[in-house]
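Morning run. Coffee first, then this:
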Amino acid sequence: MSAKVSWAALAAATLLAALTAAGCGGGVGSGGTGASVEIAQGTVSGFGSVIVDGQHVDDRVPARREDEPGVDRLSDVHLGDQVEIELDEGGAATHLRVQATLAGSVDTLLAPGRFVVLGQEVQVNADAALGPVTQFDGDWTGPADVLAGAAVEVHGVLVPQGGTSVVRATRIERLAALPAYLKVSGIVAGLSAAGFDLGALHVQTATAAVVPAGRALANGQLVTVLAAPTGRSGSAAAPVIVAAQVRIRDLAAGALVSVGGNVAALDAAARRFRLGALEVDYAGAALSPPLLALAEGQYVRVRGRLQPDGTLRADAVTLRDGRNEAEAELTGTVVDLDVATQRFTVRGVPVDARNAELEGCPNGVLAEGQFVQIEGALGATGVLAREVHCEDEPEGGTVGRKGVAGAVDVAGSRFVLTPASGAPVTVAWTSGTIFEKVTPQSLDGARVEVEGVLAGGVMTARKIERAD
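And here it is:
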């Protein structure tokens, strides 16, 4: 880790950077409802705050997602998720939305690391030079585990190729069953009164709700479609779905935007390229590293302002290839440490620290409950730590605890968590707390893992998960 900073210093630096860069623009993200100073879209590359393509964002707002038309629900955020975050003038998130790219079944296996879901080719990525390494979840640990017919949720970056695009996966999760609504995101083509195409998929829109209300569909728009599984027909090669909802996901002109993706259709002479559905003009942009020679397929973070014609006029283009910036960063509490293998979790992310350099750790070793900062590379199922820096647990920071819940007060929304070692802690929950595999009514006596903000001796939970 090139420079060690405390949690408080990191938060202050993030705030200062956001204030310096925010300017006087505005705009509303595709999923938000209020004014924002900046919109960050991209891949979750770590936690401390939430980190999107290396950009630290104060995330103390519940994340939400839309898996059925018009219904928002609380959502956990995972490494490799695609997210959209609206920031206020202080650099804090006002809205945080998880945006899965696909949800459906694996129709066709094309080759190891390549398969088709709802007419969209999905490519697994194991090369940090091409973008975030694909994360696997569920009972899958790599591309060889992907099965035809399996239900999956895929997060990924749209990479234009010729007249269509492929999904370069950043996260693949095996689902126990198909969701209530299939989901597919892509760029509209072949628009007619009856529908449009997303790659090989034909979307019928006669009975669909188009949102935001009053908006008209157009070729070239980025959209997310929700459809009931019973509305699917056609073949695996040429599927058809009847859309229940089509959400247009373009951004308002004037919006200050930070977005990650792969360079495509590069025109070095005109200093333009495509990033998903966006046309990027980088003629006046500062490049990082300074001598960066842009090339097709590179994964970059672009920051700029959206013009009335839909072009993103870039102020900065930063290469994300695992060499100039860390692939992954984590800040939090060591949980479930296996001393023999040096494996543990931080913020729910598996960490392998066998080859890591330890800095500032008592007696030169890691310990359960130690607060750490980690930089490393991405493996297929978590972070391969290069450096682990131990420090004191911060007051007001996001921490983790694991133990047995007792003295549950459902009416008062709190309980006492007793860890295997260390002092018990009072845990409070709110309407924004995510419960996984447990409910307030079944907490008493359950072994749980809690993630939350510890201040004044009380831990306000963001997530409570049964850990049996």
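The first helix runs from residue 7 to 22. Good start to the day.
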